Amino acid sequence: MPIEVSHFTEVLMDQVQLVALAVMAAVYLLKIRWILHYKAASERTPSRGDHGQAIRYSYATLAMPWELPSTRRHWFRYLEFGLLHVAVAVAILVTFVMPYWPRLIAGRDTIGVLQVVFAVGLLAVASRLVRRVGTAAMRAVSSPDDHFSLLMLAAWFAAAILAAPQTSEPALIAFFGLTAFFLVYVPFSKISHYIYWPFIRYYTGKHFGHRGVYPAKSVPRHA
Amino acid sequence: MASGNNQSASARAVVEGFKNGLSRQAVLSLGACVHCGMCNDSCHYYLATGDPLMTPAAKTDRVRKLFKYHVDWLGRVAPAWVGGSTLRTDEDLRALEDVVYGSCTMCRRCTLSCPFGVDTALIMRTARGLLTAQGFAPEGVKVVSKDQWEIGNQMGVSQEDYLETLDWLQDELRGEVGDPDAMIPIDKEGAHVLFLVNPREIKYAPMSLLAAAKIFYAAGEDWTMPSVGWDNTNFGLFSGDNKLGAHMGKLAYDQAKKLGIGKVVISECGHGFRATKWEAPNWAKEDLPFPMESFLETMVEYVNTGRLTLDPTANPRPVTYHDPCNLARSAGITEEPRFLLKRSCLDFREMTPNRQENYCCTGGGGAMSMSEYAQRRLKVASVKADQIRATGAESVATACHNCVDGLADLIKHYELKVPVRNICEYVADALVLPAPAIAREALIPAGLRGRKVLVIDDDPDTVVYLTTLLQDQGLETVAAHNAAEGMAAARTARPDLITLDISMPGRSGADVFARLRSDAELARIPVVIVTGAIDFRELMYKRNVPPPDGFLQKPIDPELLLMTLRKVLEVRHRECVVSETGAAV
CA nearest B109: which of B118, B96, B99? Predict the structure, then answer.
């Protein structure tokens, strides 16, 4: 059963989250406005392909690892990417459920499933951290922000595992404290990449569709 | 030099240009990268060297640092936290030049591997443009760009040379097809096709243009070449100079509009096609009233409509195809070359990977003109060499002149011993044409007979081979085995043409070439470089003295050698006749 928490923790889980969420939303809106204030290059030539189809294809590559040479070759990393992002999505969902409907995820089995999901997320982060630190090519491109983001994510998942049963107030403080921090920090950090993603995939699809490159033509799958 | 505020004027200009000139697509490519490393093994530079600084992310980070420092929100407050830094000195600019020009061919293979679609080529081109504007670019790029601005073509071919070459090619075409009425029309108003070429076809590789002319002839096409605006290449694409890009595009577009042609057909040049068809209309801000297509598409149409009949037994040896990056990844042309090769050759073999996933020939992005990076280029070409070797093919087809040169260099370097040719040459060989009505000799009376050639080469076997081959054609030959002998023979024998080896003990052929070109008495003698080395490209692109009149790589293809000599001697002869008589061509 979820424990009764102090007023401080209650505020942290509710009002602080809402304020942080509002900050995040505001920064994201500003960021989108900032992206859009740069003039987009456009094509004056007749198209060789179908823009709409190419843009849809461009977005769909996210779920078609066989379409990109990189994800086809590094299928484990694609799996890792999938599991990590599922774990992140579940953790975000939990931050909304816990303050308002704590009993909804208080069942023993549910707690178990959540902890497994968060543990998998933690492993995926650890794997990425090891790769970033352990390979020269990754070290060469890594900034403090890259490392910090992974470390914070690891801490967040660890806190989520401990907070999932909702029986430890320090764990809940850690989890929601980190969540609030993330909500404010993320829009400025590399983790905000998902704000860029819809835009860049749109222009990638449009550009390569215009040239008739997207959707990609048949390529031997053993490549 | 850095100024008082610790930033050189050039560095400041680059930074300001960067901050103020970014497109939305560039901002997205600079901002979206999460350094996931998925692009690493898409790049031939990294695959071949294992150098962590050669991954696409590491290379673009050299530009991204500027973005982080000057544009990114967090970076402007805490640049070191996000890996941001700025450019302060001219040394910084030179280091950036080395990265954006010397370690990326802008092939875009990484872009199609990136889960985001980060456009590395766009980032590199943006940086190139800013650097070039401040004079930071490889010498070859500067020379070629200057010639495109001033002369209108990248190889500095004079109008006279161009027209004489077409005139000579017309004679060759007549000899080939046995028809005295076969034409290479120039500035024909209202023609259906306006054909634009790579200056390499005029200056050094006339066989591909002859093949194209033969195909147009066989198809009964109503075509023409322009007298100006004929260069389909565009160094603006490589140097990031949109104004040069627009200038080169407009030269062609204006001529097409003036002649009222039906469509523009662009010869087999990857970047030339991309620049002329896709990019230059944007740079020139022109909406064009005529369509443009690749010669590959034109040939496919001829075959599909029965205007060409092909016999694949003409090319019985196994052939593989190298997809040029600018055609496969930036223009969507992947099936047309395969269609043509499968109908022109008996044994077509796919390279793996292929199409939009093919590896770069290593000559892209203007790399062929950057002799300072030749050794690096050859080192990273091992990836391409392995690809070609694995096919077991005995010849390589491609649809790009840059690729022909890039592949020829790596084939030489990795001792693959396979020739590389343009697609149209395979198609021309496979053409089914009526037997010639008139013998070649009757149509081309001049030939090579009676001309004197000085062969300068330190390899006795090559000297014997060349002199025997030339004597069999009725040429008079003089041989020299080193630089000193060569210079002396040039003075005493006064040959009509010199074939010159580059790698010779003592004074090199390059040195001999420079001395010949600088000598008032000898400067006019045409020189054809015949070499096993690849550093001859420096002579073609840096042009401290006028470039050679031809070049051939060893092992020597006798047919190509004789064609090159015919071309050089005939064009020079015609120019002399014109200058002596004052007659118009």
Answer: B118
Relative to beta strand B319-322, strand B292-294 is unpaired
Give the three-state DSSP class for B449: coil
- Whether the link from the prior residue into B445 is cis, omega within 30° of 0, is no
Decide if B221 is inside a domain: yes
How many whole angstroms separate alpha carbon B96 and alpha carbon B93? 5
Nearest by CB to B27, from A35, A62, A216: name it. Answer: A35
| Gap from A178 CA to chain B (nearest CA, Å) | 19
User: Average pLDDT over chain B, rounded to whole?
Assistant: 93
pLDDT tens per residue across span B22-76: 999 999 999 999 999 999 999 999 999 999 999 999 999 999 999 999 999 999 9
Q: Is residue A102 part of a domain?
A: yes
Task: Please state the domain count of chain B.
Answer: 4
Tell me, yes or no, whether A87 lies in a domain: yes
- Chain A residues with CB under 8 Å of B57 CB are 141
- Name the minimum distance, in Å, from the CA of A143 to any CA of chain B: 5
Give the rounded distance of the alpha carbon of B257 from its chain centre. Answer: 26
Boundary residue ending a domain (B280, B304, B328):
B304
Go through B511-542 and write b for each residue having 16 or more CB atoms within 10 A of its CB, e for each that does not: ebbebbbeeeebeebbbbbbbebbbbbbbbbb
- Tell me which residue range forms the domain holding B558: 446-581
Name the residue facing A39 among B24, B28, B116 (closest C-beta). B24
Same domain (yes/no): B242, B188 = yes
Looking at the fold, whether B402 and B502 belong to one and the same domain comes out as no
Q: Is residue B276 part of a domain?
A: yes
- Tell me whether residues A68 and B34 touch, CB distance under 8 A: no
Give, for B551, the enclosing helix (H) or strand (E): strand B550-553
Pairwise CB contact (< 8 Å): A69 & B58: no
CATH code assigned at A175: 1.20.950
Q: Which residues of A touch B285 (CB under 8 A)?
A: 44
Q: Are residues B422 and B549 in the same domain?
A: no
ipTM of the complex, rounded to two decimals: 0.95
Q: Tell me if B148 is assigned to some domain.
A: no
What is the tens place of the pLDDT at every residue in A60-112? 999 999 999 999 999 999 999 999 999 999 999 999 999 999 999 999 999 99
Residues B158 and B298 in one domain: yes
- Going by pLDDT thresholds of 50, 70 and 90, the confidence category of residue A222 is very low
Residues from chain B that touch A217, judged by Cβ atoms under 8 A, are: 334-335, 355-356
Pick the closest to residue B534 from B422, B411, B421 (CA basis): B411
Name the phi and psi angles at B193, rounded to 5. Answer: -120, 130
> Does one domain contain both B559 and B467?
yes
Q: Are residues B255 and B351 in the same domain?
A: no
- Average pLDDT over every residue of B104-124: 97
Cβ contact, residue pair A219, B41, below 8 Å: no
Rg of chain B over Cα atoms, rounded to whole angstroms, equals 24
> How close, in Å, is residue A9 to chain B by CA atoms?
30
- Residues of B (524-583) whose Cβ lies below 8 Å from A: none
Query: Would the CA dihedral through B264, B270, B272, B273 be positive or negative?
Result: positive
Q: Which of B63, B70, B72, B74 to mutate to test the interface with A (most CBs of A within 10 A)?
A: B74
Whether residues A141 and B61 touch (CB distance < 8 A) is answered with yes
Whether residues A220 and B291 touch (CB distance < 8 A) is answered with no
A148 → chain B, closest CA residue: B81
- Domain hosting A59: range is 47-210
Residues B164 and B226 in one domain: yes
Q: How many domains does chain A have?
A: 1
pLDDT above 60: residue B567: yes
Residue B438 lies in a domain: no
B435 has a pLDDT exceeding 90: no
pTM: 0.93
